[in-house]
Design brief:
The strands form three sheets. A six-stranded parallel beta sheet has the order 5-4-1-9-10-11, sandwiched between helices. A three-stranded antiparallel beta sheet has the order 7-6-8. A two-stranded antiparallel ribbon has the order 2-3. It is of the alpha/beta class. The C terminus is likely disordered. The protein is elongated and about 60 Å long. Helix 5 runs parallel beside helix 10 and helix 8 runs parallel beside helix 9.
Length: about 290
């Protein structure tokens, strides 16, 4: 499929859309300083970062995996939403959505676990509940491996033994099991509340219905390699919808794109959605 980079043509399609879904990946948070699994060759210290995001890796070496997620938590805690997050959040404000797509409904499906899209929605529209699905869970949730209790936890650090480990670059640190994050209900070992490789993403039935109904998909900052999210653009295109890809570089999802906007998402999204390239135009409004 030949893709267009004509912003005015895209905005014409946007204006006529009825059901818009945005499918966001790690590239959306890049401008906020959140590293992806593929940054620095896909390594954290000397380990393949993707290999640490599995249940098997956690139960084999919970100390190592908790240090990896502590590093990610500390990065996310200090990050703020960028103009790309804000532009998508602005679509959840009825007045803003009506200005660019008068009769549309908007839903964001994010693969990111950093919570920045939630922060953006809270900043832009604190009085409304956003149409937002965090399909891969939340970095700041914890799940007890014994009793299953799930809680939000924004402590920094989440436990004393992890203090400063985010600064370690190469040396392996072995934290005793009893010093790792523990459940307040039963003292069981906690795990990060994210969906690991091999686990089932959240709310797939609801997301599937939204994708089925969508006549416009915004694919934002994703390499289109992790399923089921990687297949959503194809599904929208297959039932006659339009697909617009926003990415820093070419990806596997480009073949399904009617529109392709290459460049940093925090620059391309505000420009394509609102005709501007500044955060101010997508600033918080109630």
């Amino acid at each position: 499929m030949a893709s267009s980079k004509d912003i005015e043509q895209f905005r014409s399609v946007l204006r006529k859309s009825k059901n818009i879904v945005a499918i966001a990946g790690a590239g959306l948070s890049a401008a906020s300083g959140i590293p992806t699994f593929r940054d620095a060759g896909g390594l954290w210290r000397t380990h393949d970062a993707m290999s640490l995001a599995t249940p098997e890796a956690f139960f084999e070496n919970p100390s190592r995996v908790w240090q990896f997620y502590h590093y990610r938590r500390e990065k996310a805690l200090r990050a703020t939403p960028n103009a790309g997050h804000i532009a998508l959040a602005a679509l959840s404000v009825p007045e803003r959505l009506e200005a660019v797509a008068p009769t549309a409904r908007f839903t964001l499906v994010t693969q990111n676990v950093d919570g920045l899209s939630v922060k953006a929605f809270q900043n832009v529209c604190p009085s409304r509940e956003p149409e937002l699905f965090e399909m891969h869970g939340r970095l700041f949730d914890t799940i007890c491996t014994d009793c299953g209790d799930c809680k939000a936890n924004f402590d920094s650090p989440i436990c004393p033994a992890l203090t400063g480990t985010e600064e370690q670059l190469g040396n392996e640190i072995e934290i005793p099991l009893e010093d790792l994050p523990r459940c307040q209900e039963c003292t069981g070992l906690l795990r990060p509340g994210v969906v690991w490789f091999g686990e089932v993403p959240h709310q797939l039935e609801e997301i599937g219905q939204i994708v089925d109904d969508a006549d416009l998909a915004l694919v934002v900052g994703t390499s289109s390699t992790v399923y089921p999210a990687a297949g959503y653009a194809y599904e929208v295109a297959d039932h006659g919808g339009t697909v617009a890809v926003f990415n820093i570089q070419h990806s596997e999802g480009d073949e399904d794109a009617h529109f392709l906007f290459l460049g940093p998402c925090h620059e391309t999204l505000p420009l394509a959605l609102f005709g501007i390239n500044a955060e101010s135009e997508a600033s918080p409004q109630n």
